[in-house]
Design brief:
The protein is 59% helix and 11% strand. It is an alpha+beta fold and 504 residues long. Helix 14 runs antiparallel to helix 18.
Length: 504
């Protein structure tokens, strides 16, 4: 299993950086077959034969990964090439929840028709039917909702790399291509044509989310309410650039990213409420609740990864199977990449989510034995261990992509992570009570506000310390690879040392 999974991931990684010829794929398959045949046709030691089998299966995994990336959106042509940089009239449907930001709103639109705008005294061709997504930037008002059919005029353009300080650039085009988007348009002024063209389930989920978010906004002031929504639903755009920058400098951006903890709370809550029903019903509703909550949150890469792992854990418990988090992570990665292989290279949220989970699952056990002096009360030892482990696995990649090395990430994480579960519980109750009565929501909102104020204060202090963070210039990705190799060797040495001194 390890051989084919790792080979599949490597094949997608290699294929993401350029077109891979069919001859290369066929050569990989043939080499795998030769090694597999040689293993059974020649004498040799058992250990040697196992290595040949591993390499053979690994090569098959590489060929499967190359095939998958070959047939992905990365190697497909857009239907809109003839409309780029030309004023065009479009009609389409808003197919995702509007992304409301500080100064504008981003709409993901599935186009239905496209027609070059009419020019006086010139003949125009009829509207062409298309079926492709674009992202348009519109003003915050008037508001548009999921499922709205709109018409607008715009000039399409290819998304450009986003340049940042220190010589870094973000491949925005690749990021959008991972979401099936080739082109964008800015300063668009759409008109509403009709409504209710989307999924009924998504429509009501987004309506519930909007009402829940409004209830929290009414009960809590800013920026505490935005932080609460980020903790519960993983939406962080409404925090604003300044506050997001503080979270980044303090090394705690991950707290407003939907994690397995959020998903697990949903599942256990539903199953606890419905425990009076037969177990098969409570289990089924718990699984359905996870799926619906993931859709409600926007189904980002980190949320989907967490949902898959929690579902695997629930099924393992239901059928009395041994649950191994490492295998669940591998299953989630393969399942997500099989559906969308572009995530591996072009989606930072997917990469960070995987790295953080690797830290918690594989690195944390190495760290815990060295924290015997940290008390277990309030889960402090576990918080210390998971924080150190995730910093080890995530920090090199964060520094490479963001250019900021936070020197206060460890103490800031330790100071606020212990308060996150209680804050989320109180925030969930605040939102539910707010759907019934504003005055009733003030009861849990007061302790929620105190905890949120404490967290924001710690983050602000960490971000404003003179030497709290260091900005580093851009460097080669091979430096990151070298750092991870050093971390891996160090963990191997620690494990070997611990095994040697362990009493028989």
């Amino acid at each position: 299993m390890l051989a084919i999974v790792s080979g599949f991931i490597l094949g997608i990684f290699l294929g993401s950086f350029g077109f891979v010829s069919w001859s290369f794929i066929l050569t990989t398959v043939c080499l795998s077959g030769i090694l597999y045949y040689y293993n059974f046709s020649s004498p040799g030691e058992e250990k040697y034969k196992q290595t040949l089998v591993f390499v053979s299966i690994f090569l098959i995994g590489i060929s499967l990964g190359l095939l998958r990336i070959h047939f992905s959106d990365l190697n497909q042509k857009s239907q809109l090439e003839n409309f780029v940089d030309r004023k065009t009239d479009f009609t389409g449907i808003v197919v995702a929840e509007p992304d409301v930001r500080e100064k504008n709103t981003m709409l993901t639109v599935l186009l239905q028709t496209a027609q070059v705008a009419r020019v006086p005294l010139a003949t125009t061709s009829p509207a062409q039917k298309v079926n492709e997504k674009i992202i348009i930037s519109v003003s915050i008002y008037p508001e548009f909702n999921y499922g709205d059919q709109i018409s607008f005029s715009a000039k399409l353009s290819e998304p450009k790399d986003i340049e940042s300080t220190g010589g870094r650039s973000f491949d925005y085009g690749g990021y959008l291509r991972a979401r099936g988007v080739w082109y964008t348009a800015s300063f668009v002024y759409p008109k509403l044509v009709s409504q209710n063209h989307g999924s009924i389930i998504k429509k009501y989920l987004f309506a519930i989310k909007k009402s829940f978010t409004s209830a929290i906004d009414n009960a809590l002031p800013q920026p505490e309410s935005s932080l609460m929504v980020g903790l519960l639903l993983g939406t962080k755009q409404s925090l604003g650039k300044e506050l997001l920058a503080e979270f980044s400098r303090s090394g705690v951006s991950h707290v407003v990213v939907l994690s397995g903890y959020n998903i697990a709370i949903v599942a256990t809550s539903i199953m606890a409420v419905l425990r009076f029903l037969p177990s098969v019903f409570s289990f089924s509703f718990g699984c359905i609740g996870i799926i619906l909550f993931t859709i409600l949150s926007g189904a980002g890469a980190s949320a989907v990864r967490a949902a898959i792992m929690v579902l695997v854990a629930l099924f393992a418990k239901k059928f009395n199977r041994d649950y191994k988090a490492g295998r669940a992570l591998g299953f989630a990665v393969v399942l997500m990449l099989a559906q969308n292989p572009a995530l591996l290279v072009f989606d930072p949220s997917f990469q960070l989510s995987i790295l953080a989970t690797i830290g918690i699952v594989f690195v944390s056990p190495f760290v815990t034995p060295y924290l015997s002096r940290v008390p277990e009360k309030f889960g402090m030892r576990e918080i210390f261990s998971s924080t150190i482990a995730t910093q080890l696995t995530v920090l090199p990649f964060l520094v490479y992509t963001m250019g900021t090395l936070s020197l206060v990430a460890l103490p800031v994480n330790i100071l606020i992570l212990a308060t996150i579960p209680t804050t989320m519980l109180l925030g969930f109750i605040t939102g539910l009570f707010g759907l019934v009565s504003l005055w009733l929501s003030f009861l849990p909102a007061l302790p929620s506000y105190i905890l949120l104020w404490y967290q924001l204060t710690i983050v602000h202090l960490g971000a404003t310390l003179p030497f709290g963070a260091i900005s580093l210039p851009a460097f080669s990705p091979w430096v990151v690879v070298l750092i991870y190799i050093i971390i891996g060797v160090g963990l191997y040495w620690l494990n070997k040392k611990t095994t040697q001194v362990r009493p028989m």
